[in-house]
Amino acid sequence: MKLGVVILSVRSPRKADSVSAWVLDRLNTRALDDVEWTTLDLADYDLPALRRYGQSGEADAPADLVRWRDDVDRCDGFLFITPEYNRAMPGYAKNAYDLLDAPWMNKPVAFVSYGGVGGARAVDAWRVSIQPYNQPSIGHQVLLYNRFDFEGDTLNPTDRHTQTLDKVVDELVRVAAR
Ligand SMILES: Cc1cc2nc3c(=O)[nH]c(=O)nc-3n(C[C@H](O)[C@H](O)[C@H](O)COP(=O)(O)O)c2cc1C
């Protein structure tokens, strides 16, 4: 199966770089059987605002939107790495989500979040927003606290974080395989 690690901050500098490096390093180390990971970094896509591009296709859709659609479409599930902005997910990330429909359908989502309270409110917002496409969300989540788990933008992961990440990933793989 193919699973996408989706990086949902487009800022520079950003904590997302350190968080995603830790996640990808752990995924590479574990090298789970039959799981291929691909990284979808929103900063690599120049997406328009609020224009839907579903499976039906639009001849004049911008190239980056087509690439975003195809990259999401190829995945069987997702690990969202999300910051919290104004007590929800980043607006840019919600727009990127809203641009697609069928490519998300029925595919599970797990979360690694960060913020003042671990990004918990961003994940709550995501759990609501992914319902229309029947996307199951994984109950466990990795919560990283700006004040305790980072030095500046650099994450200082502990064994406890790694254990939780493993549990979240195992659940994602299990649900995606169903
Ligand atoms: C526009 C904006 C709004 C923010 N609002 C929140 C918030 O509501 N709750 C929170 O915990 N952190 C908030 N933060 C702080 C972020 O947790 C922190 O800036 C983090 O580094 C953002 O992740 P990034 O560097 O990967 O973009 C906000 C940051 C920005 C830029």
Word description of this protein:
The chain is an alpha/beta fold. The protein is built from 6 helices and 7 strands, in the order βαβαβαβαβαββα. It has one domain: Flavodoxin domain (Rossmann fold), CATH 3.40.50. It has helices at about 15-30, 65-75, 90-100, 120-130, 145-150, 160-175; strands spanning about 1-5, 35-40, 75-85, 110-115, 140-145, 150, 155. The chain has a 5-stranded parallel beta sheet with strand order 2-1-3-4-5, with helices on both faces. A two-stranded antiparallel ribbon has the order 6-7. The longest helix is centred in the C-terminal third of the chain and has 18 residues, at about 160-175. The structure holds flavin mononucleotide (FMN). Flavin mononucleotide binds near residues 15, 16, 83, 84 and 146.
Short description:
This protein has helices at residues 15-30, 63-73, 91-98, 120-129, 146-149, 159-176, and strands spanning 2-7, 36-41, 77-83, 109-115, 142-145, 150-151, 154-155. It is an alpha/beta fold and 178 residues long.
What is the strand and helix layout of this fold?
Elements: E1 2-7, H1 15-30, E2 36-41, H2 63-73, E3 77-83, H3 91-98, E4 109-115, H4 120-129, E5 142-145, H5 146-149, E6 150-151, E7 154-155, H6 159-176
Parallel strand pairs: 1-2, 1-3, 3-4, 4-5
Antiparallel strand pairs: 6-7
Flavin mononucleotide binds at residues 9, 11, 14-16, 83-87, 115-117, 146.
Protein name: NAD(P)H-dependent oxidoreductase
Enzyme class: oxidoreductase
Pfam family, one: FMN_red
